[in-house]
Write a structure and sequence with these properties.
alpha+beta, two-stranded antiparallel ribbon, 6-stranded antiparallel sheet, 6 helices, Chemotaxis protein chec
């Protein structure tokens, strides 16, 4: 439950799919079930850091957009908004549980066929599978990142 007892979309896990020639991408059943009713089966997809895309449930995007629009208009925030809105598109799930990516989105994220969807709690990252595998690296890289993030203040969970 989110604020005021409302349900919030949460996405976890990795799923690998194939993007079809029309840019349609299957959203896993696990992710579709995690959508809140307020999302209206709609995702807002936009450019993201590290050369991937982010797909937000519409209700989560609306909150993010409210926060984004409330920021002071500085050159940095205006540039951020322009970069995000330049690639933004809404897509409602079709009868087969797919969303459609735009040609610009696919081009910017280097998507052609093999795609990985990574649940990141409040949104889904959409990656070219080979680029994602390269990005996540190996065990030594994981250990280094993990221990640095713990040292930088990630709260430990008591068991």
């Amino acid at each position: 439950m989110g604020e005021s007892g409302r349900y919030m979309s949460r996405f976890r896990g990795r799923f690998d799919y194939t993007l079809d020639a029309k840019g349609r991408l299957n959203i896993p059943a696990k992710f579709r079930k995690a959508l809140s009713p307020e999302a209206s089966e709609t995702f807002v997809v936009c450019r993201a850091p590290n050369g991937c895309l982010r797909a937000y449930a519409q209700d989560v995007w609306n909150k993010y957009e409210d926060e984004l629009s409330s920021r002071p208009q500085t050159p940095e925030t205006l540039r951020h908004q322009r970069l995000v809105y330049n690639t933004l598109a809404e897509s409602t799930l079709d009868a087969q549980g797919r969303i459609t990516l735009t040609n610009l989105q696919m081009q910017m994220a280097g998507l052609s066929k093999d795609v990985s969807l990574i649940g990141q709690y409040g949104y889904i990252e959409v990656w070219d599978t080979s680029r994602f595998n390269e990005y996540v690296g190996n065990q030594e890289d994981f250990d280094d990142v993990f221990f640095k993030s713990v040292e930088s203040g990630v709260k430990k969970i008591d068991r």
